[in-house]
Write a structure and sequence with these properties.
This protein is α/β, with parallel strands linked by helices and 233 residues long. It has 7 helices and 15 strands.
């Protein structure tokens, strides 16, 4: 799936770096590169955009001020040299907050968060699309929700267990969790998310999926017990 995007930054070097990163990512289509908020507003008036890479400190109108003027803003990844605006940015529901200089791996993680959010919302559709895009071994892989048995967190990585293989992706558990439908998946531990159709047995603080016993974290037990009621006869 391809997503349209716009880059807004008044620093020419920062703009060029982001343009290069976007061109390296086959799932992104660059619609425009803008030097200020006014140029960006002009683009958004005539073109629907999925994602906006937005600098904060710019002449006349800041990125955050511009966001507040948009009745239906696209998804936004903030790109800035200043950490002071992080709280304000997340109050505006931005996807991610990237501090300059922006490394390529950090850029890709932010795009991964955007893809996960888009998949969970169906890019505006009321129905979940039934699949998730994750980046593994340098490419984006489309995974059907039904094929995922469980997901295991490994610090900055996740291990996605499928029927016949395991994929490792540079991602966070929070980002993956946001990209999965709540009705089908449940986080049962700080390090585990399970497909609720997959447990074959329930033991003492454990869920059994095949030969694997998944621990249920102490802070998750009440929620897990409540959700499993829907599956018990």
């Amino acid at each position: 799936m391809s997503y349209t995007c716009v880059i807004t930054d008044d620093e020419p070097i920062a703009l060029e770096i982001l343009e290069d990163y976007v061109r390296m990512e086959p799932g992104l289509e660059l619609v425009a590169s803008c030097r200020n908020a006014m140029e960006t507003l002009a683009v958004l008036q005539h073109r629907k955009v999925d994602l906006l890479f937005l600098d904060i400190r710019m002449p006349r109108i800041s990125g955050l001020e511009m966001m507040r003027t948009l009745p239906e803003p696209p998804a936004v990844i903030l790109t800035t040299a200043y950490p002071d605006y992080a709280l304000e940015g997340f109050e505006l529901d931005v996807v991610d907050y990237l501090l300059k200089p922006i490394a390529i791996d950090r850029f890709l993680r932010a795009v991964g968060k955007f893809r996960a959010r888009s998949a969970s919302t169906g890019t505006g559709s009321a129905e979940s699309p039934g699949f998730l895009f994750v980046r593994s071994r340098g490419k984006w892989v489309k995974l059907a929700h039904a094929d995922i048995r469980y997901i295991e967190g490994l610090e900055n990585y996740v291990r996605i267990h499928l029927e016949d293989k395991v994929l490792i992706s540079l991602n966070t558990m929070k980002s993956i969790e946001e990209g999965l439908p709540n009705r089908d998946f449940l986080r049962v531990h700080r390090s585990y998310i399970v497909n609720l159709a997959r447990p074959e047995g329930v033991g003492h603080q454990l869920l059994h999926i095949g030969a694997r016993a998944i621990p249920v974290g102490r802070s998750y037990r009440m929620r897990v017990a409540s959700r499993l009621k829907d599956f018990l006869i």
